[in-house]
Design a protein that fits this description.
Elements (H helix, E strand, L loop, with lengths): L5 E6 L2 E6 L10 H16 L5 E6 L20 H18 L4 E5 L2 E3 L1 H8 L2 E5 L3 E3 L13 H9 L1 H9 L3 E3 H7 L4 E3 L1 H16 L3 H14 L4 H15 L3 H11 L8
Parallel strand pairs: 2-3, 3-4, 4-6, 5-7, 6-9
Antiparallel strand pairs: 1-2, 7-8
Helix pairs in contact: 1-2, 3-4, 4-5, 8-9
Pfam families: ECH_1
GO molecular function: catalytic activity
InterPro entries: ClpP/crotonase-like_dom_sf, Enoyl-CoA_hydra/iso, Enoyl-CoA_Hydratase/Isomerase
Length: about 260
């Protein structure tokens, strides 16, 4: 697919969406919003794709909304968020496959929400996540209030939001926001290595584990226990399950079709 503001590439069952507005630090204009919606919908529904990587071109992951855009089709800010941003962010959260945020630089504003919507994160050492909204007398949006609070707890999330403080890669690693921190020059290679490793795993295990763990955040222990039992019952004895067992007994890598 050809897009104006992003690139979508697929290799070794890994899709990579690269935000491509480097002169604007990959800030979101209306076209980028629509492009992200279309690309995430395609990846979400393509069963051949097993992992999605999202990253940015140039020095930034995304600096947030493009405040220099003067004309857009939105009736107001609420319309932009609900009709524009929400569909592609929800696509990422509900994607039936892991989404890796490869954070190459600043992830600020709605860019922070995008980074936090990913399931897994790998960051360059100089990259950071920042809720910048209070600097211009606004509140977090894009679901960042939910995503950040869920990740690091109310008190710390509130502190970082109302003071518009950078969460450095080191802080992200210490607080469990990011899984890995690497040198910028190694980011692409390490991201691809990780994504391709995950792409060899069982698609049904990846998809269902993601759903179970997301749902568990708002469920009781018994609800989660029952959901696990239901899922396990549905996939036990499946082709992927049988291939995994056979590969284990034969001491080889499984080949999940």
């Amino acid at each position: 697919m050809s897009y104006e503001t992003i690139s979508l590439d697929v290799e070794n069952r890994v899709a990579t969406i690269t935000i491509n507005r480097p002169k604007m630090m990959n800030a979101f204009n209306e076209q980028l919003i629509w492009d992200m919606g279309d690309a995430t919908e395609i990846v979400k529904n393509d069963s051949e794709i097993r992992v999605l990587v999202i990253t940015g071109e140039g020095r930034g992951f995304s600096a947030g909304a493009d405040l220099t855009e003067r004309e857009a089709s939105w009736s107001d800010t609420k319309d932009a968020l609900l009709r524009g941003y929400h569909p592609f962010l929800k696509n990422i959260i509900e994607m039936p496959k892991p989404v890796i945020g490869s954070i190459n630089g600043a992830a600020a504003g709605i860019g922070a929400a995008l980074a936090m919507a990913c399931d897994l994160r790998i960051m360059a050492k100089d990259a950071y996540i920042m809720s910048v909204f209070s600097n211009i007398a606004l509140v977090p949006d894009g679901g960042l209030s939910f995503l950040l609070t869920r990740a690091i707890g109310y008190a710390r999330a509130l502190e970082y939001a109302i003071e518009a403080k950078k969460i450095t890669s080191a802080d992200c690693l210490a607080m469990g926001i990011t899984n890995k921190v690497v040198e910028l020059d190694d980011l692409t290679a390490e991201t691809n290595k990780w994504a391709e490793h995950l792409a060899k795993r069982s698609p049904q295990a990846l998809s269902l584990t993601k759903k179970l763990m997301n749902d568990a955040l708002t469920q009781t222990y018994d609800e989660t226990f029952n959901a696990e039992a239901e899922a396990q019952n549905n996939i036990f004895g499946s082709a992927e399950n049988m291939e995994g067992v056979k590969a284990f007994l034969e001491k080889r890598e499984p080949d999940f079709k």
